[in-house]
Amino acid sequence: MAPTNERQMNDTSSKASESPAEPKGKRPPVLVDGVTLNGPTLDIREAESFLREAMPIVMEEAVWKATDVKEKVCEWRSPEQLKDLLDLELREGGEAHPQILQRCRDAIRYSVKTGHPLFFNQLYAGMDPYSLVGRFITEAINPSLYTYEVAPVFLLTEEAVLKKMIEIIGWQDGGDGIFSPGMETTQTDIFLSFFIILFSFIFIFFFIIFFIFFFILHLLHHLLTVIERLSLCSAGGSVSNMYAVNVARYHHCPDVKVLGLSALPRLVMFTSQECHYSVSKAAAFLGIGTNNVYVIPSDKRGKMIPAEFEKQVQRAKDEGALPFMVNATAGTTVLGAFDPLEEIADICERHNLWMHVDACWGGGALMSKKHRYLLQGIHRANSVAWNPHKMLMAGLQCCAFMVRDKTNLLQRCHSAQASYLFQQDKFYDVSYDTGDKSIQCSRKPDAFKFWLMWKAIGTKGLEERVDRALAMARYLAEEIKKRDGFRLVMEPEYTNVCFWYIPPSLRDTADGPEFWRKVHAVAPVVKERMMKEGSMMVGYQPHGDKANFFRQIIISPQVSREDMDFLLDQIHSLGMDL
């Protein structure tokens, strides 16, 4: 006879105790605080019907068409036009499903398609199918990575990914790390996350009433924020860089955690003039002060000058301050430059400074045997920030912060020992409860999508992706040299290809202030025209005393040589009359 489980025994006992006279059917409702409690309020069949109708829209419009080179990158509308088209007002009563489905179509239609082969505007692009499915799963399960009991699979996959990344950095004795919130959010990403919930939900959890109810509540939140401009969002490695400053400060002055800034001498940190703006933000947020961020000059290629760095360290000491860390950049935002890490590490060792490497953008080159020389010396860093959602296409957000430390420094620096989460008398190994290493409480399982993608294509596949992107950048640079009216700002070191377009009316004009003043006005007009046409998206900016130039970023393996040729042809077509 098969064993009877406890629930079966309880059911049998319950049935035996029922009175024959007890009426069958629904239990009578209960009134609590004026609310009638009588089973779930969600119509399961109606919810399932909506999901089955919504998901084909998502797959067709947000996945297949959004990655088709023959489709538009964007369908531009002004904020005023978009407000009218979307009917953003939230009312007392809900709308019928046909209206909601149209809201879905409109939100996708008027969002920028960041997975499109001709989207070159940011330091992320493309759509990896394995990463996308990883996001489907994590959004459906909706875990939080503070304790093993809540997120066993996702804590273990995060641990596996961090271990491999630490190995690739070159820390032979190991280290520690955590995936931090990147906060580089786009409108498309917010809306897609809503659909991810629905898609995963259909195939995995639609039969669980609680999850259905929970997800529908989240639906309201996502619809509320889909078009909202998130003014507090920052770039992907911002929080990782803030981690670095906080950990470096604690490493030098552990009393700061309890006694605060009043117990510290004046602290000074160093970074190059090409660094990401999040470094100065971190100094402001953490009470160090932006005046105590000493900016080191960079050479003409955008690399920190080591001799100038050491001069600034000595200056801080002469002033009676305590120099405590340097932020070196591996892959600057505009020029794609890599600071000389070996020389910087030598100076850090001489002066007992914490060396942090912001490799959020350039860290992808570590996957390539051919190009990892760009980060020569990164193994000597005390901490590293690396965003796989950028060059490696893991999908927003995916931001790793790692330290070359095995003394539990992250835990000691950030732990608050919340007793309702991190009980020490649990029935399993509580060392897997890693949440107290983080500055957050709730934390998304951002490593899982990277883990799934890595499992699917392997280290070799990631290497090929990086090598191809750099080869495509080299192809574009050579094409620019061949074409009249195009001029490289400098030879690309990474996949940032920076160039000017000079329209025919200026090609016979001698270089000088007036020439560059006119060139400065070209890129904004070309950008406006390409956006309104929807043909592609390329960023532009000034840099130092240089006039506005285009910054072409190459990441996605979907990008072809024909796309590069189209890019140059299109810029000429849009700007030839200027």
Automatic annotation (TrEMBL):
Annotated segments matching region Disordered: 1-32
Modified residues (N6-(pyridoxal phosphate)lysine): 390
Family according to the record: Belongs to the group II decarboxylase family.
GO cellular component entries: cytoplasm
Transmembrane segments: 190-220
Protein name as catalogued: Glutamate decarboxylase like 1
Molecular function terms from GO: carboxy-lyase activity; pyridoxal phosphate binding
